[in-house]
Structures are given as C-alpha cells and as structure tokens.
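Hi F.,

I've been meaning to write this up properly since the lab meeting, where we talked about keeping a consistent format for the predictions we share between groups. The idea is simple: the sequence comes first, exactly as it goes in, then the structure tokens exactly as they come out, then a line or two of notes. No screenshots and no reformatting. I'm using this chain as the first example so we have something concrete to point to.
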Amino acid sequence: MSPTPPVTRFAPSPTGALHIGGARTALFNWLYARGHGGTFLLRIEDTDIARSNPENTQVILDGLRWLGLDWDGEPVSQATRADRHAEVAHQMLAAGSAFKCFSTPEEIESFREKARGNKESTLFRSPWRDVPEAAHPDAPYAVRLKAPRDGSTTLHDTVQGDVTWSNDQLDDMILLRSDGTPVYMLAVVVDDHDMGVTHVIRGDDHLSNAFRQNMIYDAMGWAKPVLAHIPLIFGADGKKLSKRHGATAAADYQKMGFPAAGMRNYLARLGWSHGDDEFFTDDQAKAWFDLDGIGKSPARFDLKKLEHVSGQHIAASDDAALLEELEAYLAVTGAVPLTERQRDGLLRAMPHLKERAKTFPDIIEKAHFILIDGPIVPDEKSAAQLDAVAQQYFTELTPHLQNVTWDRTALEEAIAAFATAHDTKLGKLAGPLRAALAGRSVSPSVFDMMLVLGRDETLSRLRAFSA
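Output, unedited:
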C-alpha cells in the first residue's frame, strides 16, 4: 500500500514583507509536497487585524510567485474562519477539556507582578479551573484549555528528534478571549486539521508552540501532523539574520537582480543538504529533498555563495527564459521597458552576456553596447583608448571589413592580418575596438559584439571614431 501523499502548508502573517526565512520555509514545504506527489497549501494568518493589511498579503503573494512557488487551490484567510475556531473551543468546553475563566486582566497582571517580586513563576493558574457551573458569575469570561499538571510530554520532531517538555510549564492557555474572539494558537490547529495538513514544516522558533498546540489535538482526539522544526537563518557573523546584515526580504533580492532559480537553489541549501551537491535544478531538488536531510544547526546566509550559485544558474538558463526574467527585473526596479530592437539584440547576445554574470545588473552592464540609442558616448576609461593612433587604425580597417565574410573566423583572420601588417598585436587593437563598439570596458568580446551588431552597425560605430 503506497503512503498517503503529504499535505504541507505555508502560513505567513501579513504584517510585513516576505522575509528570507519565510521564503525558505515556503520552499521546504513546496519541495516536500511536489517531490512526494502531495499538496502545497497557502494560508494567510491575518487574525492580527491591527497589523495585517491587504498590501502586505499582496507583497507575500508576489514574492512567492517570483520564487516560482506555486500553491494548490486558493489562499485561505484565517480571519474568515473565526466562527469555526470558536466552534471548536465550545466543543472542548462542552467535553470538559476546557473551562470558563472569569479572572480579569487586572487580576492576572496583579498575580504576575507579585510573582515577579517574589522571584516566582509567573505562569498563571486560573482559580476557575474546577469551579462548577452553578458557581459561575454573570460576567465576561475567557475559555481556557485544561493543561496537564503532572508528568511530561514528549513530541517527536523529524529534525529535532524527541523533545520533552515538563507539563508543569504548560499554562491553561486561552482559547477564546472574553470578547469571544479565538486566539492564534487555536486557529492554527483548527486550520491545519480542517485543511488536512499532514506535515508541519516551520522554523524552530515555533517548537515551544508545538507543545501548547499538542494539547488541542489531544483534547479533540485529532490525528497529529508530522513535525519538522527547521533551524533559523543566521548572518555571516553567527547572529540571527536581521537588517543589520543587509537585505532580509525576498523582494529585495529580486530587485538586486538575482534569478529565481538561483535563489531557490541557494535557499534549499540553507539548512538542508544532499551529499556535497551545491548546484542543482528544481527537478533534482524535488527528487532529492527529504526531511532527514535537514540539519539542527542554524544556517549562515552568505551573499558570496548566493552570487556564485546565481551565476551558475544564469549560465545554465535558456536564453529566452532569461530575457523574460530580466524584463521582470527591469519592471520591479522601475526601469524603462525594452524596445523590440533591444529585446532582439539581447536575445542574440545572451549567450555572450550571461558568461560570468552573477546577477541581472551584470548582464545589463555587459549589454550596454546593445541598449544604447544614438552615437556611442565612451566613458572616461574607454575614451582614453580612442587616441589618434586608434582613429587612424579605424580609418584603414573599415575598408578591410567592408567585404569580409561576417563570421567569427573570417573576422578574426581579417583583424589579425591587419594587426600584423601594422606591426602590432591583436590584443593592442582589442581595447580601442571595444571602446568604439561599446563605449565601456565591460562587454562581451570584440568579435561577439561585431556578430551581434552586424556589419552595418559595426562599421558605422568604427567610422564615428575614425580619423
């Protein structure tokens, strides 16, 4: 009998941008579901009405789409399911696994202040836990879950192993507030159950929550998901990744010009490994990814390694697909859209542009010779190459190129013969030629540019700087 396909979920709170850590969590859930023939769901945990907003939700969706992490079905809004969450709390209340607590916020804070003063535990024990219904006042109440008071609870985590928590450290947590609204901890469990989630893959900062959520599963008699709490991402200095380390939002890396495939590859390697493999395709990642490959130690985000992997993916990308993603990069950075002439030139030049490029800005810099309109305006370094000697060379060279076969071999032979005739070397001509054709020192090779530009445009640029 084949195993049941897994159901995973990514459940971000729309209180800010998609953090790089959240992007990796989404990736791990996506890889596990896609690699095991399962389902990847998206739930927007928007119960924090004051901090959640549609704009942040859209930013998260856009970030996931940029990363290529497609989800199944429509995103679920947690806030719209409040009635269902409350229904489950009342079921626990009716079953006796939860109780009504009439303690006021002032009473609870007074207890905690006194406990802090006595250096005692501030874990609140409600005096209403075992009070019969007949003795209840006619007053607002919260619904609390009856936590076990003795012994301990052990949860098995696929990444962390067996983790044990002493039950005397568990409070009778609130399920419904006194205004009847459900708390986040209840909503998560109800939604995971109702959505059929089989594997909860999330950051290990949620590990303590698992013990509180486990009480709800026990109270309801529901099947529990497989747990996999993954290590956090640290900066290169070994501290939790934050803005002091640079960009922390996924959208920032799109605007920096990293290709999505490179980002997926690099994020997959943060905390997970498959042997010594550093570079791999999506298909390989889906086939290889499993929970037992996730380590316990925090991963360190290294921008240089990201650039290296990014460059490998750019080099391996299909030219047309790369051009499409480059245009998306230009759009998010507010750049002027490409003209048809520029698109055509970029596509023809892409095999040369993507060599050794690590980001899209690298490609654009090398593509300056294609993107410019009008006469070449050389930068300072290139202008120094266009001296009187170079200008005289161009005057004599252009007739030689007028009738030569326009392929790489013929061009190389013609220019090599010209260099020999003028008692110079091909390398001595390359600088001035590059300056005249691109106006920049960073470009593809002179011959690659000539082939992309074609005979007429090449000769026109050389004549512009002839004596």
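Notes:
Residues 181 and 340 are 56 Å apart (CA to CA).
The mean pLDDT is 94.

If this format works for you, I'll send the rest the same way.

G.
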